[in-house]
């Protein structure tokens, strides 16, 4: 048996002996972590604190203690990590390479404790040392290396891949600054840099020894190679180094620890040499900064790429590092690259990493001597593409001018891919030049640019959308020409979320209730939640279920009080809308409902005793350059403040907008929610994943027939879901007829009252101009048809009120939401990717 071979016993409490025994020769000795006892943990912790950090316990700060605790926990994962890597090396099989510009990981400590099942031991060890475990846990700044749904999906997927022991590796960028921290000043969003590394980075392992060089710019030329063949080559103008940082991705209590490899940019020797030679010290340091800018900051635009040069540099940077890393380090030295597809499938998380396709061609041809046809043969088997949107403004295009300047060789390759592809199109559809133009990888207007989605579709083995409806629209409306050419290329994989983080960690009490009721094991077999169905009518169970919800609400109230100084009423329906601020998601529709309810109460139109008290919670970041989104945030905050100061309504409604919604806050908010708001215009939200988290935590959804809402409703049942709004075909028909929002305003008195009240300045200190940007847009543009869906939304909210008054009926529905949402585990998503894309049987 080799080092750390499979038969090495797993570490568990039965492993005897000190962790700190000198190791015998590494060829035979397993890596042994610290002992799984309270004393063993405390000793390991003190060793970290004293000998690694060089701090005495009684002199140590909370930060010192947090860092030592983190390093102690990761010490317990180390043996499994090394063993997993070695097992994979011994038995090379096809791997999944997940390429994503974003990973919105959330805090690492809780997840690592759950994966190792060390929570109790760690807590007792800290207590035995006189330390406050929860205070230490609260120190962690979550790695916010993503914007929203797309980045969080990547984090859920790598969690599932590890929990299912799928050979896989995640590749991405180690941004020095993640998504900005949101603060409010006078109700307006102000962004603060997210210096998440400033406390130290106990979860990462830098490997400067494994740096990779990445080239940029310059020109290409033809040259005669040793065999007398004319070949192209790239003469780059500058380069940077990529330093890999490894993160552990532990599976759920299964002894597997996968790797997430994030790249950080650093100036190369050449930069340093220039420093030396030029004698211009300041200029040389500037050059260094230039190189390091590449991984400096996450672009905060969600679904609206700005087409910035630095962004393309980031994309190429991490993809070039990753492919080189895989080919040079992961494959055996003599591996035959014409069989590369037997070792890897790269999943492209949207178009951000699509430059990997020409990069793979370049590597195979220019660096590994392959001919075009052979290189294409294998490249076109190594990538699959996931699309996460339908919004035209979200589709990435890169100007040819920029692409040529930054990546001249790649531009040549893209042209050639396109030529051969368009030949195929012309063959299949002779004489159809309009079709050729629509399908071309190069768009001509408004400027010549590379359509990254087309490139991904041409090269990908499969193209998938992220929910059933989305995949259908993707195939039939966004890429119909491609579907006509390659009908079998298109498939669906409905998104999912990890039950480890979003049920076990976020909702411990519900988890305990579930385990007490159906036994353990549901965390990795989430369809087992079905076994809860019979308990929807069980008095004892539903009573406990209600108590759990109330406890989660109480916890949230105390968190919001401490975190934001927000005081919420104890007993009110908790109505939550948390997601990025985007017009298509329609936070304004929610706001119109709130204003309408306020107006009903203050005008006496409804009797106070008929009102179901509600607390509305928003969480949303706006892209810093997205004007309308920021105006909407301001207006929500204005309404919240006015309502809080109006004694006519404070006992019946409250609006809370805690700043800086992130994964950490999501974990506190979602378990407390009664009502989940999923109200995008039908056809615009590709999937949504928050919607799944709420259902799994026993919130009922009010939602449109959009994204994964469709599947949630099918599964939980119509009677346990509040559907409203136009269906996608109705939306399309209305858009074709021509949509005039003002006609809805004119003909609907309730809508008119709500809009007039917003416009009046009532919520903005009497200043009408402050509400005007949002109100005028709604009245005269309303691209996402909020006014058209308003009445239907109001009617659905009335049904929500009625249902909520029936405590037993509501609880029953909530239980059924949990019981019937097991499908939305990201483990199931991974199974679908394996079956339909990565390892298809046929
Ligand atoms: F525009 N999504 C996101 F498609 O969070 F690229 N950021 C993005 O930039 C894009 C999509 C992009 C989201 C979708 O809006 C959401 O519906 C989906 O659930 C999520 O990606 C994961 O698939």
TrEMBL record:
Protein name (database record): Alpha-1,4 glucan phosphorylase
InterPro entries in the cross-refs: Glycg_phsphrylas, Glyco_trans_35, Pyridoxal_P_attach_site
Cofactors, names only: pyridoxal 5'-phosphate
Reaction equations catalysed: [(1->4)-alpha-D-glucosyl](n) + phosphate = [(1->4)-alpha-D-glucosyl](n-1) + alpha-D-glucose 1-phosphate
Organism whose genome encodes this protein: Dermacoccus profundi
Keyword Nucleotide-binding in annotation: no
Any Pfam family hit: Phosphorylase
Keywords carried by this UniProt record: Carbohydrate metabolism, Glycosyltransferase, Pyridoxal phosphate, Transferase
PANTHER family: GLYCOGEN PHOSPHORYLASE (PTHR11468), GLYCOGEN PHOSPHORYLASE, LIVER FORM (PTHR11468:SF3)
Its EC number(s): 2.4.1.1
Region span, Disordered: 1-33
Keyword match Nucleus: no
Family stated for the protein in its record: Belongs to the glycogen phosphorylase family.
Function statement: Phosphorylase is an important allosteric enzyme in carbohydrate metabolism. Enzymes from different sources differ in their regulatory mechanisms and in their natural substrates. However, all known phosphorylases share catalytic and structural properties. Allosteric enzyme that catalyzes the rate-limiting step in glycogen catabolism, the phosphorolytic cleavage of glycogen to produce glucose-1-phosphate, and plays a central role in maintaining cellular and organismal glucose homeostasis.
Gene3D superfamilies: Glycogen Phosphorylase B
């Amino acid at each position: 048996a080799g080092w750390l071979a499979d038969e090495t016993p797993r570490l568990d409490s039965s492993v005897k002996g000190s962790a700190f025994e000198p190791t015998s020769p590494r060829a035979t000795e397993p890596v042994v972590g610290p002992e799984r006892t309270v004393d063993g943990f405390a000793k390991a912790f003190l060793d970290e604190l004293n000998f690694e950090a060089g701090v005495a316990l009684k002199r140590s700060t909370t930060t010192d203690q947090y860092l030592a605790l983190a390093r102690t926990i990761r010490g317990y994962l180390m043996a499994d990590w090394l063993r997993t890597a070695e097992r994979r090396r011994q038995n090379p099989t096809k791997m999944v390479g997940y390429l994503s510009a974003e990973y919105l990981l959330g805090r690492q400590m809780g997840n690592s404790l759950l994966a190792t099942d060390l929570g109790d031991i760690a807590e007792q060890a800290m207590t035995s040392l006189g330390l406050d475990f929860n205070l230490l846990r609260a120190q962690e700044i979550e790695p916010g290396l993503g914007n929203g749904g797309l980045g969080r999906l990547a984090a859920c997927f790598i969690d599932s891949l590890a929990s299912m022991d799928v050979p896989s590796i995640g590749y991405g960028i180690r941004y020095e600054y993640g998504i900005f921290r949101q603060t409010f000043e006078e109700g307006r969003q102000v962004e603060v840099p997210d210096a998440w590394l400033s406390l130290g980075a106990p979860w990462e392992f830098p490997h400067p020894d494994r740096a990779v060089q990445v080239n940029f710019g310059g020109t290409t030329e033809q040259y005669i190679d040793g065999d007398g063949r004319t070949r192209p080559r790239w003469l780059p103008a500058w380069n940077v180094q990529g330093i890999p940082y490894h993160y552990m991705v532990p599976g759920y209590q299964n002894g597997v620890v996968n790797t997430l490899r994030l790249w950080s940019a650093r100036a190369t020797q050449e930069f340093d040499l220039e420093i030396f030679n030029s004698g211009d010290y300041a200029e040389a340091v500037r050059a260094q900064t230039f190189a390091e800018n590449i991984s400096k900051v996450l672009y905060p635009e969600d679904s609206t790429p700005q087409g910035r040069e630095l962004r393309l540099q980031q994309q190429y940077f991490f993809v070039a590092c990753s492919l080189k890393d895989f080919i040079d380090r992961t494959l055996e030295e003599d591996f035959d690259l014409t069989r590369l597809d037997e070792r890897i499938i790269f999943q492209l998380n949207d178009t951000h990493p699509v430059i990997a396709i020409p990069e793979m061609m370049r590597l195979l041809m220019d660096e590994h001597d392959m001919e075009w046809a052979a290189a294409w043969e294998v490249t076109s088997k190594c990538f699959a593409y996931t699309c996460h949107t339908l919004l035209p403004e979200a589709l990435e295009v890169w100007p040819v001018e920029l692409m040529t300047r930054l990546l001249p060789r790649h531009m040549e390759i893209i042209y050639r891919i396109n030529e051969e592809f368009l030949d195929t199109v012309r063959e299949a559809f002779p004489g159809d030049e309009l079709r050729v133009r629509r399908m071309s990888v190069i768009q001509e207007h408004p400027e010549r640019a590379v359509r990254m989605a087309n490139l991904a579709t041409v090269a990908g083995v499969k193209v998938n959308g992220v929910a059933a409806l989305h995949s259908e629209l993707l195939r039939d409306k966004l890429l119909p020409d491609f579907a006509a050419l390659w009908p079998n290329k298109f498939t669906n994989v409905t998104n999912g979320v990890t039950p480890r983080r979003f049920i076990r960690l976020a909702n411990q009490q519900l988890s305990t209730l579930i385990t007490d009721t159906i036994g353990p094991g549901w965390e990795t077999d989430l369809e087992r939640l079905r076994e809860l169905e019979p308990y929807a009518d069980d008095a004892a169970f539903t009573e406990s279920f209600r108590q759990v919800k109330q406890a989660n609400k109480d916890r949230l109230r105390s968190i919001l009080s401490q975190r934001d100084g927000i005081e919420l009423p104890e007993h009110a329906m908790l109505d939550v809308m948390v997601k990025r601020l985007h017009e298509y998601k329609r936070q304004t529709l929610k706001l119109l409902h709130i204003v309408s309810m306020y107006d009903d109460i203050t005008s006496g139109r409804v009797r106070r005793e008929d009102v179901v008290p509600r607390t509305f919670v928003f969480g949303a970041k706006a892209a810093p350059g997205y004007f309308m989104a920021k105006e909407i945030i301001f207006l929500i905050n204005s309404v919240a403040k006015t309502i809080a100061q109006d004694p006519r309504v404070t006992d019946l409604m409250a609006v809370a907008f805690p700043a800086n919604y992130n994964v950490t806050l999501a974990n506190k908010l979602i378990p407390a929610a009664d009502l989940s708001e999923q109200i995008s215009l039908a056809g615009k939200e590709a999937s949504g994943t928050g919607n799944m988290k709420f259902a799994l935590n026993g919130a009922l959804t009010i939602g449109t027939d959009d994204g994964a809402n469709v599947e949630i409703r099918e599964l939980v049942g119509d009677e346990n879901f509040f559907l409203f709004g136009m269906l996608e075909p109705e939306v399309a028909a209305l858009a074709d007829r021509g949509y005039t929002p003002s006609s809805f305003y004119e003909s609907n008195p309730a809508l008119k009252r709500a809009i007039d009240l917003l416009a009046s300045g009532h919520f903005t200190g009497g200043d009408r101009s402050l509400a005007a940007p949002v109100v005028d847009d709604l009245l005269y543009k309303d691209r996402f048809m909020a006014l058209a869906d308003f009445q239907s939304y109001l009617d659905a909210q009335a049904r929500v009120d009625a249902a909520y008054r029936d405590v037993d009926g509501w609880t029953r529905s909530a239980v059924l939401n949990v019981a019937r949402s097991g499908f939305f585990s990201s483990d199931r998503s991974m199974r679908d990717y394996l079956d339909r894309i990565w390892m298809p049987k046929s």
